[in-house]
Amino acid sequence: MRTVLITGASSGIGEACALQLAEEQNFRLLLCARRIEKLEELTNKIKTLNPNCEVHTFKLDVRNAEEVETTLGNLPAEWRKVDVLINNAGLSQGLDPIQDGDIGDWDRMIDTNVKGLLYVTKYVVPMMEGSEQAHIINLGSIAGKEVYPNGNVYCATKHAVDALNKAMRIDLLSKGIKVTAINPGMVETEFSEVRFHGDKERAKAVYHGLTPLNGQDIAEIVSFVLSRPKHVNINDLLVMPTVQANGTIINRNN
Ligand code: NDP
Ligand code: 8X3
Predict the structure, then answer these.
(1) Domains identified in the chain and CATH numbers
(2) Pairing of strands 84-87, 135-139
(3) Prediction pTM value
(4) 203 lines ligand 2 (CB under 6 A)
(5) What does the UniProt keyword field contain (predicted)?
(6) What is the pLDDT of residues 98-110, one digit of tens each?
């Protein structure tokens, strides 16, 4: 039985990963996000899917280093050992040319996607001590591989995740911790609604005339990555909807 900690489990890819791993029966789930009520709803779904799945949820804002340290340090004793960390919490805010960018949006993206990922990793790695199957999965993006118009700061944060993924693989090699980046293209989740500050119509338009990926598509890849034998690690994986060639070239029906 492996214990998996998923950040940003209250929605989208994180939620889908929790459901996928719960169904597989050989994982215990430590789930966190800011919206604790969403995590409670998710726990109910998990219990319906697999009543035997052990789940522990807790509120965590990954941007607050002190909160990350104390919350993880105060977990119940039976939840203080972690085998798998899925660094999934992240967001985009705004899609504007750099000269029109909102500084608050920039700070939220940098603080969450880069600093939050670092804080969680720093405090979870010691919790992996002694694990025979230690593994960190970082959610990067096509935005970490290329830059698209007005994506400036979001792309910069995901390029940072790309660099940190490579850096972690080097630094954690001697500890035997596997490190994998999964870099999706367009996945329909709450992502665009958050990017456009709650504008549902604008968010919906992002996926108009195409079939995007969904959270389950990514969760199945996470499951595949975690099911490789001990001597095999998938370093870096780029996954797109079939209609998306790269960050900007997308084949829409109309
Ligand atoms: P969602 O908006 O559906 O989910 C984002 C999750 O991150 C939520 O659970 C949210 O929880 C959590 N989160 C955001 N800020 C914080 C914070 N400060 N502290 C803790 N948790 C936080 O989007 P996705 O599922 O699509 O995104 C998941 C990851 O995948 C992100 O890193 C994103 O950049 C990446 N990604 C997404 C793609 C897409 O097209 N959707 C493509 C490529 C990568 P809460 O609000 O409750 O705190
Ligand atoms: C999210 C997908 O295309 O907005 O990382 O960069 S995209």
Answers:
(1) 2-239 (3.40.50.720)
(2) parallel
(3) 0.98
(4) no
(5) Oxidoreductase
(6) 999 999 999 999 9
